[in-house]
Amino acid sequence: MITQDMLPAMQGVIPSDLATCSQSGEPNVAVISQAFYVDENHVALSFQFFNKTIKNVRENTKAMLQIINPASFEMWNLEIEYHHSETEGPVFDQMDMQLEAIASMTGMTGIFKLQAADIYKVKSVKKLS
Amino acid sequence: MVPKAIFDLFNTPGSAGIFATRNESLQPNIGRVWGARTNDDGTELTIFTPKLMISEHFGNFLHNGRIAVTVGLAQPGSHLGYQLKGKYLKHEDCKTEDHSFLDNNFNVFREFLTGSYGPEMARLIDQIPYKPAVAITLRVEEIFDQTPGPGAGKKIL
Question: Taking CB atoms and an 8 Å cutoff, what residues of chain A touch B81?
Fold first, then answer.
């Protein structure tokens, strides 16, 4: 599902975008600091604040993630489904370090703090022309 | 009625953002916004999105009409952002004057990124297919603060 040419889009250089939907049918859209590559069938998104996005995926696990390659501006839409959250372990630790770097570069030090790494299964990938 | 500060942000050149719709199975979809403006009293918002990326949203507009839009302004040091939610009213192909508006908006966005990240950014930005575009108009029902931080998500309207 996730191919090598997509990996630069998951380095946090250009924020990713996430669309979710509540169980009552209300869509929501958010800019995501981190879309982290776990393996070719999974991504992890940073859970920093308990907000509408988190509430939505806990009650309706379906989401759509858009990522952008900073070197070429190629875009992909990933249809993803929330699976579980991790508050420790290698994925969490790597995301924590990466998030600190992103916060430092964007003036968000002290504001961005990783509470959990939300693991999503990738159901489909579409490259946008 | 959209608060003036938000009204002004949405009508300032250099805005960009994203929007979301959903289908009958509650599967969300996402699209890009390369310009936005309100009507005179701020009760409606028109967003501009590339025509070649819009087809999957048409069915969602007709099925349930729910749209969420978040827009930020390309300004140094600014992380201001707002999310508007509302009801789809109509969509139409952009007219000549709309494309002029989009060109101006995109040029401001381009200048900001080039100034921040160097001239190579211009080459990349120029590859973004923001035209031809479709203008989507929605009735604004709710507004939320989406500036990064613990206050993100606070309802304003």
Answer: 31
